Amino acid sequence: MDNRTLIVIPAYNEELTIGSVVALAKRYGDVLVVDDGSSDRTSEIAKEAGAIVIRHERNMGKGQALKKGFEYALSMGYDFVVTLDADGQHNPDEIPFLLEPTIKGEADLVIGSRYLNESKKKIPVYRRFGLWVLNKSTKAVAGVDVDSQSGFRAINRKALEKLNLNSTDYSVETDMIVKAREEGLKIKEVPISVRYDVPKKHKKNPVSHGLSVLASILSFIGYKRPLLLFGSLSMISFIVAGILGYLALEPYYRGENVYLTQAIGAGIFVIIGIQLFIAGLMLNVLAKMVRE
């Protein structure tokens, strides 16, 4: 690799692993570490290992760190960017495999997927369901079924110039896919290995982290495909109404009185379902008008 490739590593309190990640990655291009407000020696160790370092004075989120890295790559004339995590989960020696499709012009965005080889068997059980939900949610808004939360990616300059990312947090991974699809960029997956026995693997509570990313993805769906989101919520309301209606009428068929509370609840959820469906229709029309 030559200096047309920039390897961007967003990092937050990763002094235990950043040195080795930088040392391995710099064999394949220049390395930029964006220190997102770390309180430890992440910046110092990254510099000692040979990385260029940009430091945020406070923690601004992974999305902001990647945006800063992409801006640097564009300003310095790099043709390709590779992103990978600073915690040692990704193997820098796999960088050439991610870059190959972009160099050959086969893809503008290459995503390293843990689902294309034996790595999927190593995913901790508690993560599997969460990743499945986030991947399917991303597919709902972007229309592509990929390892949506993988941070190991390769991007060519064409994609860098077109990806106007808005996300500041970990939902940036999905944001990147959504924007790439909107811009008609070519997306491809390649198999990668992933380690889960890394230090500080739980910097954030996995449940709250997953829910925050899911909330961001749902906001994407609400903005891009409102009928899908509101239609799904409407269907859930009708299902609840049906269950409550059954519970209200079931005693009647046994010769007893109708349960009034459940009947009222069924009526309320029917009204909510109708309102949600109408809202979805209206927002869908407005979304089409905005896009056109």
Task: Walk me through the topology.
Layout (H helix, E strand, L loop, with lengths): L4 E7 L6 H8 L4 E7 L5 H7 L3 E5 L5 H14 L4 E4 L11 H9 L5 E5 L11 H18 L10 E4 H6 L9 H11 L4 E5 L14 H19 L1 H24 L10 H32 L1
Parallel strand pairs: 1-2, 1-4, 2-3, 5-7
Antiparallel strand pairs: 4-6, 5-6
Helix pairs in contact: 5-8, 8-9, 9-10
What does this structure look like?
With 292 residues, the chain is of the alpha/beta class. The chain has two domains: 5-223, Spore Coat Polysaccharide Biosynthesis Protein SpsA, Chain A; 226-291. 51% of the residues lie in helices and 13% in strands. It has helices spanning 18-25, 42-48, 62-75, 95-103, 125-142, 157-162, 172-182, 206-224, 226-249, 260-291, and strands at residues 5-11, 30-36, 52-56, 80-83, 109-113, 153-156, 187-191. α1 (18-25) links the parallel β1 (5-11) and β2. α5 (125-142) packs parallel to α8, α8 (206-224) packs across α9 (226-249) and α9 packs antiparallel against α10. The radius of gyration is 23 Å and the shape is elongated. The protein starts with a strand and ends with a helix.
